[in-house]
Design a protein that fits this description.
This protein is 57% helix and 10% strand. The strands form two sheets. Strands 1, 2, 3, 4, 5, 6 and 13 form a seven-stranded mixed sheet that branches. Strands 7-8-9-10-11-12 form a six-stranded mixed sheet, covered by helices on one side. Strand 3, helix 13 and strand 4 form a beta-alpha-beta unit.
Length: 809
Amino acid sequence: MPKSVSGTGARILVRCALAFGTPLLLGTYALFPGRVLLPYVALVPWILLYTDDRPPEASAWWFPPAAFLTWVLQYTALSRFGWFAGPAMASVMFVTWLPFPFVMRSVHRRFRWPRAFSAPLVWVGLEWFRLTFTLAHFDLYAIGYSQARIGPLVQIADLTGVYGVSFLVAMGNGLVADLVTAWRDRRAGLPDPMRRTRLKREAWIVAVAFAAALAYGAFRLGTIEEREGPRLAVVQPNIEHSTRNTVGVHLSEVLFTNERVPPGVADLIVWPENAILDNVRRPGIYLPDLARLAKDKGALMLVGGMGKVASDPGRTTNTAFLIDGSGAVLGEASKRLLFPWSEQIPADDALRRFAPPLWRLQRAIVRLAWGFVPTGVPGPGVTLLSLPWQGSTLPFGVLICVENVYPPAASGQALRGARFLVTITSEKTIGGPVQEQLLRISMLRAIENRIAFVRCGNSGISAFIDARGVTRKVLRGDHGGTIFDTGVLVDRVPLTSGGPTLYARSRDAFGRGCFGFAVVLALTAALRPQRRLPVAGLVAAALAAQGCAGPPVPGRDPRAAPAALAEGRDRLAKGDAKGAIAPLAAACADPAPCREAIPLISSALQATRRFEDGDEFFAALAKAHPEIAGPALVERGLFLDRLAELRDAEAVTAEAARLDPRPDTWTALGTLRMRMDEPDAALQAYGEALELAPSDPQVRYLHGRALWLAGRNDEATRELTALVAEHPDDGAAWAVLGRLRDAAGGGAPAQDAYRRAIAGDPENVEARLMLARDAISRGQPDEAKRWLAEIWAINTRAEGRTGSPAAAR
């Protein structure tokens, strides 16, 4: 083999090893965060690859797949949601990594500084860039977080933020890279009489930087003054949060808190994020239990739940609610940084308008990963809550889930006067290494702002962190574990005084400065046009292979419509919902067979979860055949409802009721209006349905329930009493009668109504909740647990899986 060919092959192998060495090292740290020295060499392969002075220079094409792999390996926990979840997210998230080789190479080539100085400048500047401009600021792995448990070293974060710690770690990488380069050149016989002197000088400077950081850390650790603040009880239920079983989850947490938090031990009881994966203000369901807990325990409740958006009632907020013993919501703080794809779909409106195939593809992938399309909207701004304490109020901030990953989210609350921070989170499925990383991030946030940080996780890690970044208490559960275990941790929050830190006031000045300086140096070095990184095609290629068809369209051949209807009905009967869609759509070439096809194609589109296509198909159908627009618009309203477009669904269903006034259409309209918190308008719709079907028990029940929710209890009682007299097995009506009897004094009549509700409707969850609530009030927790077991069994059957309260907890 010719020597030049052999040399080329060896060079390719070496560069491949360097390109993918850093992803493997960073991924190893992500899986094994206890290896805190690993980050000091993790960047060395990339630094060597892109600062190699020997021709030919390494191609920039090495970096996109390496950066992509880095992201995937750091977030391997996403595979729990499907093998595709990590790569799909990485295809968007890795983009902010891409400037590194260009900036690193330009700065090195132009200025020839020791790598221990140029590498940290470039790395930290681009680390700030990633944390700031990555979608939703989602970047858990600033390299400085790895040192969070080395207390003296990380205290500089109150001056520089995490970026100062990252700078030190990157300096270590740069020094190692220079040592490797010197060893390589010496072996190659390249003379450099000043090499040893330069390396010694460089090593001394790095050592001095570390010594200065450690000295500052020792000084700060000895000078921070704290006093004992309010007592918090952090509840870690380790329970699966489920939209289907919100009542069972809530009751489990109520019983757990009732048993494990003694009266008077806390000023504030904290439940995790998504403790109530439902509208917290849902009438009569959650607030009464929270009020009783707050009153009995002598503490306010801080509870993660869902809020409704008044301007767009189909949308929700991820919110922390502060609730007192009367059930009043004293304050609420909504999450501002929504997790992409699970809480909010990025660029959803823009893709729908300009790239419908990509819009459908993104939504299909999201449904495949999470099982739903999120409806979240961000909170309005920085909001502090107030905790009554020692005759005054103590302002504190709340961060939800991964909001604490973005440093300004915490420092913004500190600047507003927060005396301590609380993070509520629900991380049951992501695993221990990521939870340890998130704990370390919380430790840095405490140092950066010099205020205590309390972490409440559904499955851990729950802890109290003081202003030094020290975990003074970590919840160890009933089986001794810090994750995937149950328990309650009670401690006082240490309070500091002295106002916002230099870091908080600087608004990321150190990270911004590194970025700005690195960019200026790179631009200065750009004496010739640089080749652009050809990565846009990578994202486009990942999305181009989507194969997403558009929505079905009504057929155009009326003569073929009857046969198409028969084919579609046959396919649907055989369980081939996907294959039934096209012939059923073809049947809509003629209004007569189409009228029969409408419920069938609606069922097929729902079974295949093509909700966006259902909206578009039935809109087109109503336009194509005005004579059947009524039933078509009813189905369109259903799909708009599934897409959380409640206002549009209400308008479309109202038009359907006008065109084709049927009882079921009016009741659908009334139900939509009830969900939009418009009881008077709902009563009008239910009234129309009642006129058309005065003896229909379902219509009568819905009308009576609406009267109750509108506060017209006497009318509701009369209507529902008459209904159960004629239909004594109407469990839903009995459940509402129980609520009405509770409002009138409760006691045996209410309990009798709830038991009749269960007899008439064996799957009635709400009646069981009310009976469990009564048992708790009578001091009968075992009876309440029996009702809870029945609620879990009902929802287990509904979800088609096995489980129990004990297993879930």
